[in-house]
Every structure is written in structure tokens, then in C-alpha cells.
Amino acid sequence: MTTVPCDAAPERQRTAAAWEVLFIFLRLGITCFGGPIAHIGYFRNEFVVRRRWLDERAYADLVGLCQFLPGPASSQVGFSIGLIRAGYLGGVAAWIGFTLPSAFVLVLFAYSASALAGPIGLGLLHGLKLVAVAIVAQAMWGMARTLCPDRVRGSIAVIAALTILLITSPFAQIGAIAIGGVIGLWFCRAIAPSDSGHVATPVSRRVGAAALLVFVVLLSAPLILGRHGAPGGFSLFNAFYQSGALVFGGGHVVLPLLQEAFVIPGFVSNDAFLAGYGAAQAVPGPLFTFAAYLGVIVKLPPHGVAGAFLALLGIFLPGILILIGVLPFWDSFRSRPAAQAVMRGVNASVVGLLGAALYTPVWTSAVKSSDDFGLALVGFALLTLWRAPPLVVVVLSAVGGIVLGQIA
Questions:
Q1: What would the pLDDT profile of 58-79 be if each residue is shown by its tens digit?
Q2: In angstroms, what CA-CA distances link 53 with 21, 28, 43, 57, 203?
Q3: Distance from C-alpha of 205 to C-alpha of 384, rounded to nearest angstrom
């Protein structure tokens, strides 16, 4: 019989638990369709109801925290569950398992999209652009109902949309989010504060503070490196990092941020951008894996698989860092009315951000005729009225785009 040293047993247990986390999240990454809200439902069924890794109150607290912070909420919830179960290795295992399947499929699509030539290929790509219209319209509609339920927050959304549409500065989106936070601080304090339970995590305050410091340093890196030049690949990583750090309110909000970072400077064509975004709706897992597609085709080194890796790391890292940073301080911070008021204003402003993106570039580049509008309208109706799975809508829109291309 082999004797395991007492100090080695916990390490082996953590490693075994991390492998368990990896395999469970890999299965979820293959089967979780439907966007972040659906993902949170899948997670609840798997880890609260079936496996009982968390109770309802602890899970609700995690979900509330991740919806409060910038970043992909469902991926942050998954990382937190892995962190609680198997430490930092478990958190990484959860992220890899949930992210890898959809990222792999989108990398394959990026390599094959350039081969789609002729009427059929062009029609398919056009259908994917039209499904993006339906998906973004549905996301904006749902977020507006939840995040802008009164006149004040509805007005914040309108102000944010006008700011984006009328100001061409690359800082317009950051300014719109900041304005929303300031207005929220002044006018959203009267709303009753939210409350939730408590969940224990292995993150110490020292580690949390270090994670927040790394988050800020990477966010400020362009200013620090501006005079000395950035190392190879950093420009690509930084573009995704800056976008991932500013996503509040849902994965669809990353669309205008990435469009600002890659389409406007000419690093990715608008047609290729929207086709990839439409394809991203057909795969399971987090929407942020759209970054893998962009990392392959973007006109910034290193391109290809290496570019996809840097893109994924850049867009997911800020949300993970700020999650680790806030976890030890969450209980005291979330109870402050001022913090909650600011976030109400920020969440309302991202609705306006998404509304502006729905008009340009999504609508203006995809809807060119009444037939295009009709196909996008059918997709929107299927999503909102019939609750059809996004995969079904993507397939129907792709077929519709081919048909329209043949009869045009």
C-alpha cells in the first residue's frame, strides 16, 4: 500500500477536483446554447440542483456580483464556481472547458469564410449579417425592459445613444458610460437597494488587491508604453483587453466596442465582422469567443491561431481580474447605495450603446432592401415571440440569405 504524504494529499485532491471541473465545463461548453441568461440557468441546474456544490443563496450572490461587474457574466460565474470547488486551478479549468469548444468552431469558420465565394457563399454571409440585426435588436429590447424601467434610466440610454451617434471620437463610448454613471449617482439613489446572500471564496484581500492592480496596469499600458513602443502582438491583445474591460450589461455590448476597435480603423472589414458575429450566434458557450474569429482575420500581427489565443486572453482577462479583485471586498462594497446608483446609470447607458450599434454598423450595412428587412424581421419575431433557439434562427437566416441571393 502506498502512503501519501500529508502535505501532498490536499494538492492531489485539488488537482483531481480541477480535472472534474474541466470535464463538466467542457460538456457545458458543447451543449450550452442560448446566451448568458440561458448559461446561468444551465449552471444552476448542474451545480445547485444536481451536484449541490452551492446553495441557492450562494449562487444568487455569485450571479448578482458577476452581473454588477464588467465582463462576460456567465463566464465569470463559471470561473467562480471552479474557483470555489478547486481553487485557482479549478477556475482556470472552468474557463478553458466552457470557452474552448465555441472558440475552436469560430477559428475554423474564420479559415473557411474566405473560401465562401460566388452567389451561394455571398448569400450565406449576407444571411449571417441579417441574423445579427435580429440578435442585436432582441438583446437591446430585453435589456431595455430590464435595465431602463423608468424615465430616468430610459433618458440615460437615449443620451448615451446620441453621444455615440453624434460624436466620432474613439473616446465617445467611454464618455457615454461615464456620463451614465454620473447621472445615475445623482438621480438613481431613490431606487430601493438590492441585497443578496454571502459566499465564501479562497481569494484573500491581498490577492484581490494585486488582481485589481494588474487590471489597472494593463488598462493603462497604452499610456505607459506610448513613448517606448509596444512589443509584438501587444496592440492586438490591448485592443481586446480595452473592449473586455468596458463591457457592462451582457455579451452583446461587446459588439460596438469591438467594432470601434477593429472595423473603424480598417483592421477588419465590416462585412467580415458582421458575418462572424452572426456565426457566433450559432455556437454554444460564451459570445466573447467571437474574439477568436477576429483574432484570426484581423490585420494586426500575429494573426491565425496565435492571434485567436491573444484575442481570447485579452477579452476575457479583464473580467477575470476584476472578479478576483472584488470578491474579497464584495460584501461591504455592494451594500453602498452610491455604488449601486452608479451601476444603474452605467447599465442604462450600455442599452443606449447597443441601440446605437443596432443602427450603425449593424442595420446600415446589412439591410439594403425590403427583402432584407423582411428576413431580419422574421428572425426578430422568432427570437422574441416564439422563443426560438438562436441556432435555429441562424440556420433559417443563412438559408434565407442564400435564397435571396439566388433570386436577386
A1: 787 787 778 778 889 889 999 9
A2: 11, 16, 11, 12, 18
A3: 43
